[in-house]
Amino acid sequence: MxxxxxxxxxxxxxxxxxxxxxxxxxxxxxxxxxxxxxxxGSGKSTLLxxxxxxxxxxxxxxxxxxxxxxxxxxxxxxEIRRKKIGFIxxxxxxxxxxxxxxxxxxxxxxxxxxxxxRLKKAKELLESVGLGNRVHHKPAELSGGQQQRVxxxxxxxxxxEVVIADEPTGNVDSETGxxxxxxxxxxxxxxxxxxxxxxDPEIAARATRTQRMRDGKLLA
Amino acid sequence: MRDKVLMAYRSIQERRTRxxxxxxxxxxxxxxxxxxxxxxxxxxxxxxxELTMFADLISVVPGKISGATYVEQGSFTDxxxxxxxxxxxxxxxxxxxYDAAEVEFRSKRTPIFIFGGETEELGSFYVDPVGxxxxxxxxxxxxxxxxxxxxxxxxxFDDPVHVNDKLIINGEKFIxxxxxxxxxxxxxxxxxxxxxxxxxxxxDVLQTDDxxxxxxxxxxxxxxxxxxxxxxxxxxxxxxxxxFATAITMGSALEQIGSVFSILRGVLxxxxxxALVVAxxxxxxxxxxxVMERTHEIGVMKAIGAKSSDVLTLFLLESGIVSIVGGVxxxxxxxxxxxxxxxxxxxxxxxxxxxxxxxxxxLAGLVVAISVGMLSGFYPARKASRMSPVxxxxxx
Lengths: 220, 396
Hints:
The structure holds two protein chains of two kinds.
Chain A: E1 2-13, E2 16-28, E3 33-37, H1 44-51, E4 59-64, E5 67-68, H2 74-83, E6 85-88, H3 100-110, H4 115-128, H5 144-156, E7 162-166, H6 174-189, E8 193-198, H7 201-204, E9 209-214, E10 217-219
Parallel strand pairs in A: 3-8, 3-9, 6-7, 7-8
Antiparallel strand pairs in A: 1-2, 1-4, 4-5, 9-10
Chain B: H1 2-14, H2 16-52, E1 57-61, E2 63-66, E3 69-72, H3 78-84, E4 90-105, E5 108-117, H4 119-130, E6 132-135, E7 145-148, H5 150-154, E8 166-169, E9 172-180, H6 185-191, E10 194-198, H7 199-205, E11 213-218, H8 224-239, E12 246-249, H9 250-293, H10 295-303, H11 308-349, H12 359-385, H13 389-394
Parallel strand pairs in B: 5-10, 7-9
Antiparallel strand pairs in B: 1-11, 1-12, 2-3, 4-5, 4-8, 4-11, 6-9, 7-10, 8-9
């Protein structure tokens, strides 16, 4: 499903080169629930951005469904992000001018789905994460946990095969964090591939596989 | 597409104050262009319209006109008039004379210019465009009658002068048989301060045979320039002075006025263009701010699958909507402004004219607004669309 080969990302800071990722070889098969764990600055978020086609590697490649993403142009990458991947951020990253249901419907907007259809689907998704009574609230009117659930609903709106979550519980209390992990586990049970980045071992324990990272390298 | 328009509209609404200010900026620029150009057209039409009535006329004066100064060289003779009659293509010739005379009304005396000419020709030149407020125009046999301009009637004497009042001109009594309306700017200097007599009476009362002004009417307007040259040459030959007479066709006067107006219009458009440049910098600034402010949002949109072209379209639509609204508002303000300016200018200058609001000008105003808006929106929009999603998302 997802495979990285010699994936390397170098940031230049003045004259020094910083290896955010250093020769990372990782394979994730369909239906896995992988937790990538490591201290901050270990490169786990960078790895996630590479897999999520948000960033391009300095060298090496990412294969998604056996397609080398380095060979794709910007529009094709956008299509992968839109159709195959659902992204959940630590900061929720909702569009603050849109209400909950519009935020959830946003990926469908970019897929060209008709307004009535996408709002209907978005409402259903919000109901499924327990926010059926909050559809017309703007992000600012929602708690952190509620915002993260809106973000999860948004990540699911295009029915992606892979859900990528970058510290999804980092900005919510532990109880909400557990609820969010329940949702992710449920999605995994439905057959979706889940990749979660966290530095919380308790969260990582709920995954089917744990990958440790340090200094841009994958630890065995 | 409708969805994207709605989306763009939403984000304009979200930043209402700034959007309104930007719209206002464009509107002011467009209003300036529309109103100034319309007023320019209106003035030009009014003045050339009046002058076109006399396109078949050539005025001949015994002197040199250079720029705004006129140096009189003498007066025309009977021989001049006779020789002119031999020039082909001339329909008729009117000789006129004028000079200052002392005029008395109810024991108040003041010097006034007396104008004498053949009544029919003089009438067609002044009565048709200016019109009489009271009484009637002179006839060939009105030897002791006069028609007076508005200032003669109302300003020059202690009491206003009316029809049937008597004026004493150089000691001779004349009865007022007509009073002109107050003339528009174009005629004010010719009509308002003057007294008009028939040619014979004028020559007698001014004690002169001098002809100071000849008007020539031609059959064919296209020949006017050529005939004017011939007229000047003939008279110059008679007097043996190279630049004795000047013959001006109304056509060349029209051309001169046309070129003055095209300069005027250029200046007006230039002023308006500056306003527009300021407005477009305003749009660009607003759009750039909007892009900066929403860097994060753009990153999120891209992260969840928006293509660069989606982002580009959204931002272009935003600046497009702002500029269309600005353009329409600007056209409306511009038309109103043009009406107001022409009303004020009409009464201030005394020229009857209405702003020449042309559909073309309005369309051009809209096209300019939209293209300025889109162009100034394009750079920020492209900047937005080219952002790397990961960097944009990280931007707070």
